[in-house]
Amino acid sequence: MSNFIQYMFSKKSLVIILVLLLGGSIFFAVQSSGIRREPSNRFERILKLIGEFLEEGHYNPKKIDDDFSKVVFEKFMKNLDSEKSYFLQSDIKEFKKYEARIDDEIHGAQLESFYAINTVYKKRMEEVAALYKEILQKPFDFNVDEKYNDDDDKRTYPKNEAERKEAWRLKLKYYALDRYVDLLEQQEKNKGKEGFEAKTNAQLEKEAREKVLKTFDRMFDRLRNRFKDEDRFNYLVNSITETMDPHTNYLPPLEKIAFDEQMSAGEFFGIGASLQEEDGNIKIASIVAGGAAAKSGEIQVGDFILKVAQGNGEPQDLTGFEVPDAVRLIRGKKDTEVRVTIKKPSGAIKVVSMIREKIDLEENRAKSTIIKGPDNHKIGYIFLPAFYADFQDANGNRCAQDVAKEIIKLKAEGVQGLIIDLRLNGGGSLMETVEMVGLFIEEGPVVQVKSRDEAPTILRDRNKNVLWEGPLTVMVNEFSASASEIFAGAIQDYKRGLVVGSTSTYGKGTVQRNIELDRASWVSNNPSDLGNIKLTLQKFYRVTGASTQLKGVVPDIVLPDQYEYLKMREKDEPTALPWDEIGSAQFKTWKSDFDLNYIVQQSKQRVAQSPAFKQIVEKTNWLSSYDGKHFSLKIDKFRQEKKTLGNTIQAIDSVTKLNTPLDVVNLDADLAVIKGNTNKEERNKLFITRLKNDLHLGETVNIMSDMIQQKLIAQNKQAAKN
């Protein structure tokens, strides 16, 4: 019997779920799999179990064959040596004999590829560890016109040790130049201040090299002493899972324990962001609504943190840091300033200042305001950071209930239209999403959920009551994902309201569940701790039958967006599952009071005449074509490139703020709660200020005003007939 099936029978609560999801296809796969060699060690056991879960449980498994193996091999090489700065071309040529073997090892062959590659990696790492120290002993000449190539995809492995040394020389020179320019700018800034002592260029150059040496000493100390065989093996396993699809991942035991502790502690590092290590760099993995990072509006998932500074102190370079070390720098006392230097996937670099604060759970919940639109139209606005639900407490907070309460308060204040803001909303509870759609439609299907080889299950709103019948718009952007896409898609398919935002939402239409590998161990009386797999088991489909996967939701009205150039949607993942469609569910569309074509045309005219939107298009087009991977190592050119990029980013930031602020006010009921509470007053002030200056919200208010006006015209016509 397969270990996957043993696992199903060992945990009753999951048996029911998996049997319902996967049906008889599992049993067929097991019977046809044949007898395989039993693993001889822990690594082989993990590979065997991962393979079985992928083949027998994944929603849409790719065939694990030689072609699959070659993709895994390339991904593993990239994960292990992303900058092609350790291995030589001769190493890669030797490794090629393993590129079509990994699938055999997954299926039970003796594990050889990892051990062979790992042995060479450790040897090359030690060679480079001696190399960088030698290079950094000599001064760099920043007047020589050289180039540093930071494009991993276009870089090639060095032919020999001499070529590798030259590549490292250029890399270290780039790092030193970056720090040298920082020191120059700092000296220029402090010139004339009391106690200022000017340093020569030679002294500053030496100081810059010393900073780089310290950075790489730390990095190589980590590689030697903390980056173990286990960690490199985990790279291989995740190369396998992520070749199946980008959301299927392997979580090793220690990472799982750390993850659980982090979640239970409820701490998100003082700025409201969780971090992960990637290729020796610190990356933003998620952002908590209401935290300092989210409030800044400048930090997104996928950004890298390059440096951290305490207030006005000197920035600490994070190269080579592990996540816990980075966390210790970012955390601090409440209400103190932390400045982080972030690097966007495009290569753009920004310094973001934030005030550390404890995450208030109220900030993660729905909240509303009233906005006065054109012609004094009274418009309700609801901000929803996530589709949250407290499953531990029957009386706990649930987003559908909270949104319903906000709508009731807004109706009491006489609003004529409603805006639901789902920008940056990464999803959450599916059932809450279904209930929330039900606030705006009569009963009907909301989403279709399909498991492997099974007919789709239709999740329906069964409540005939409609809480809000007036004009409705839903704001989204490229970071609106999963449940946000289900909600926006349902509102669009029912023609219940208009969706407004970037060219599309994120495009995540798949469902994952965490499964413990050790519970699947054949040594049932003494299971080993083998880690977890987060496995893709289902797919979402709209009521029309179209998947939200890959394509996301395309808004009815598209507004130029400052994040478009980042290329961070699901469709930008090379191993993402494809878009497809199934049969449509039966549903009845809403009878609207507005002419969609008219509303769209009015918005297009305003956007075309808006200098701000024109600049966003112009600047983001420049960023899209900007070569942020090749840098001049000649100081005057380097500084000019840095200045041009900084000015472009600053220009985008400035134009996304309205010249004439919106008229935004709190609801009377909310003011009664906020007044007298200093913390609530301060957070509310920041929230209101952000809304007042929001360019995209400003145009959405105009769109809503057009919808209200058309509704009033329709009502007047009907009254005249009567």
UniProtKB/TrEMBL annotation:
Coiled-coil zones: none
Q: Does the keyword Ion transport apply?
A: no
Q: Which UniProt keywords apply?
A: Hydrolase, Protease, Serine protease
The chain positions of domain PDZ read 256-331
InterPro entries (alphabetical): ClpP/crotonase-like_dom_sf (IPR029045), PDZ (IPR001478), PDZ_sf (IPR036034), Peptidase_S41A (IPR004447), Tail-specific_protease (IPR005151), Tail_Prtase_C (IPR020992), TSP_N (IPR040573)
Is Thylakoid tagged as a keyword?
Answer: no
What SUPFAM superfamilies does the entry give? ClpP/crotonase, PDZ domain-like
**GO cellular component entries:** outer membrane-bounded periplasmic space
**What one GO molecular function would you report for this record?**
endopeptidase activity
GO terms classed as biological process: proteolysis; signal transduction
Record-stated family: Belongs to the peptidase S41A family.
Q: What is this protein called?
A: Carboxyl-terminal processing protease
Which lineage do the record's taxonomy fields give for this organism? Bacteria, Pseudomonadati, Bacteroidota, Chitinophagia, Chitinophagales
